[in-house]
Write a structure and sequence with these properties.
Elements (H helix, E strand, L loop, with lengths): L1 E2 L5 H13 L6 E2 L4 H7 L6 E5 L11 H11 L2 E5 L4 H4 L9 E5 L13 E4 L2 H15 L5 H12 L1 H20 L4 E5 L9 H7 L6 E6 L2 H11 L4 E2 L9 E3 L11 H6 L6 E5 L5 H12 L5
Helix pairs in contact: 7-11, 9-11
Length: 292
């Protein structure tokens, strides 16, 4: 089973097009609803997959709650932990069996190389994953592996800086008249603030918000930014902004995006290592362009 609210881009292609070619069925659920997970279990259910916080609107999935349901069903739990990073969320102690990362993001931290990480028990890695990788070939180059290892040396320091700045910026945006809504797990007004405190060690490095005035206003805002760069990537030393409806989630129908809480006015921010005051000054002047 897969959380429908975690699907975008290549993930949706894998679930809807690729896996069925190999006889693998998927059931989509609202990841926030534990009853939906339990009700969707079938006799052939073998794995639960979800990301938390989700991309781009930072909804949360109760890792311990979903893991308990999966254990009763004899299914594995796979968690995409990219947005929280290894520093702010530890899915395995909460019941997850496998944790995956796009190491291209915060683990590298400087946009230098591509890579992925799969974590699991020694038995899973040696008996299942190792042979699969050996025969199919998705292995890191030595140089990329070295870059990612070097990135891990500073991950704690970087994530602390990302998170502190993100919290300040989320509060700043929440006080602006040009902003309709802010999504940040570290704020008390997040719909799942209690769950965030329970399973996360902080609000994280990502902020999402909605610009009043729709897509045109969102584009004016993004184009006016000077320090923050437009990019689909995240987790870089540089702060990055993206418009999910026309980039990461553009393959979805407008109705599908609306169902997931992604609108033409939605903007996603990946907070970098720049001075937080400089970033807020950049956001301040760019918000001034919203009204045209």
């Amino acid at each position: 089973m897969v959380s429908a609210r975690a699907l975008f881009g290549s993930c949706r292609y894998i679930v809807e097009d690729l896996l069925p070619r190999y006889g693998i069925e998927t059931t989509l659920v609202d990841g926030r609803d534990l009853d939906a997970w339990a009700a969707a279990v079938k006799p052939n259910t073998r794995a639960f997959f979800f990301e938390t916080p989700t991309n781009p609107v930072l909804e949360l999935v109760d890792i311990a709650g979903v893991s308990a349901i999966a254990k009763k069903a004899g299914a594995l739990v796979v968690v995409d932990n990219v947005f929280a990073t290894p520093m702010l969320q530890r899915p395995m102690p909460l019941g997850a069996d496998i944790v995956v990362y796009s190491a291209t993001k915060h683990i590298d931290g400087q946009g230098r190389c591509l890579g992925g990480v799969v974590l699991g028990s020694q038995e899973f890695i040696e008996e299942k994953l190792h042979n699969f990788l050996k025969h199919t070939g998705p292995s890191l180059s030595p140089f990329n592996a070295w870059v990612l290892l070097k990135g891990l040396e500073t991950l704690t320091l970087r994530v602390e800086r990302h998170g502190a700045s993100a919290a300040s910026i989320a509060d700043f945006l929440a006080g602006r008249s040009e902003v309709e809504r802010v999504y940040y797990p570290g704020r008390a007004d997040h719909p799942q603030a209690a769950l965030a405190k329970k399973q996360m060690g902080g609000g994280g490095p990502m902020v999402a918000f909605e610009i009043k005035g729709g897509k045109e206003a969102a584009f004016r805002f993004m184009n006016a930014l000077q320090i923050i760069k437009i990019s689909n990537n995240l987790g870089d030393a540089k702060s990055l902004v993206t418009h999910p409806a026309t980039t990461t989630h553009q393959r979805l129908t407008p109705e599908g995006r609306t169902e997931l809480g992604i609108y033409d006015r939605s903007v996603r921010l990946s907070i970098g290592l720049e001075d937080a005051d400089d970033l807020m000054a950049d956001l301040d002047q760019a918000l001034g362009a919203v009204k045209g």
